[in-house]
Amino acid sequence: MDNRIEKHIELKAPVSRVWRALTDYRQFGEWFRVNLEGPFVPGETARGYITWPGYEHLFMEVIVQKLEPEHLFSFTWHPYAIDPKVDYSKETPTLVEFKLAKTATGTELTVTESGFEHIPRERFADAFRMNDSGWTQQLKNIETYVAQAL
Length: 150
Fold this sequence. Notes:
This is Activator of Hsp90 ATPase 1 family protein. Belongs to the AHA1 family. Residues 12-146 form the Activator of Hsp90 ATPase homologue 1/2-like C-terminal domain. It comes from Granulicella mallensis (strain ATCC BAA-1857 / DSM 23137 / MP5ACTX8). This protein is α+β, with helices and mostly antiparallel strands and 150 residues long. The chain has one domain (4-147): Alpha-D-Glucose-1,6-Bisphosphate, Chain A, domain 4. 29% of the residues lie in helices and 35% in strands. The protein is built from three helices and seven strands. Strands 1-7-6-5-4-3-2 form a seven-stranded antiparallel sheet. A hairpin with a 2-residue loop joins strand 6 and strand 7 (106-114). The longest helix has 27 residues, at 121-147.
């Protein structure tokens, strides 16, 4: 069984545009559908309520790891942490990395989530499956978002 998710998409937008969509917390919130309370700062927690219909009761928290301008944005989080009765803080979080590369027609965005081997066995299959399909949707979301003129 694979312990990482990796997705690629070529976006018809310059690297600078994709970078802003990823790292400006307001723009990230629009396409990711989360109402973040403040900016992304390495070493700090970014948090906010999910705005995806049906999930508005969920609070997302990520710890920003790296912000390497126009190249790498990463954070850790607890994947598919949707049961309010479970204390996920005892689990080792997964690492999400967004890598950007300039292409002839725009930007290649690679999203990798690794560390699923540390997820408890009873949660592993659901967390992996839901995040695998979730990243597919989120790439569609950012593709639509960066195509809009800002």
